Amino acid sequence: MGDSILLSIKPKYVNAILKGEKKYEFRKVIPQSTRIKDVYIYASSPMKKIVAKFSLNNIIQASPEEIWIQCSQYGGISKEDFFKYYKTKTEAYALAINNLEIFEKPICPYNEFKKFTPPQSFLYYNRLQST
After folding, report:
1. What is the DSSP string of 55-77?
2. Residue 89's pLDDT band (cuts 50, 70, 90)
3. pLDDT band of 1, cuts 50, 70, 90
4. pTM strictly above 0.70
């Protein structure tokens, strides 16, 4: 069985994912585990809910320029914002969003888990469930 992670994503990008316009989630850092199977999407403030999950079966690792060339059509972000995000980085990651499952009833993590703190980058969902 694989691990699951929770990603904190701004609502405007979450909405683009839910509409199918954004098929890649860009990250500066990814988990070291190669066993990540599912990614849960936490829509940050003001939503503050876990709204969906997707299967993680493809991570593209390359320079920001190369990631932009490969993924910008379905990146859901402007070129200016993308390169501002990676301004000091030589390496970028694009997580391909596959098998998106939108939750009919979003999960309020503050009610569901003890001591929930939204992740800066990501956190292991499995560990969150055991707290």
Report:
1. E---EEEE-HHHHHHHHGGGS-S
2. very high
3. low
4. yes
> How many structural domains is the chain composed of?
1
Strands 36-43 and 3-9: parallel
Distance from C-alpha of 55 to C-alpha of 3, rounded to nearest angstrom: 11
For 19-39, the DSSP string reads TTS--EEEES---S-S-EEEE
3-state secondary structure of 82: helix
Here the CATH number for the domain that contains residue 68 is 2.30.130.30
The answer, yes or no, to whether the previous bond of 106 is cis (omega within 30 of 0) is no
Task: Please give the residue range of the domain that contains residue 89.
Answer: 3-129
> C-alpha dihedral over 86, 88, 93, 95, to 10 degrees?
-30
Q: State the Cα–Cα distance between residues 69 and 49, nearest whole angstrom.
A: 32
Residue 48's φ and ψ, nearest 5 degrees, are: 55, 50
**What average pLDDT does range 103-112 have in this prediction?**
94
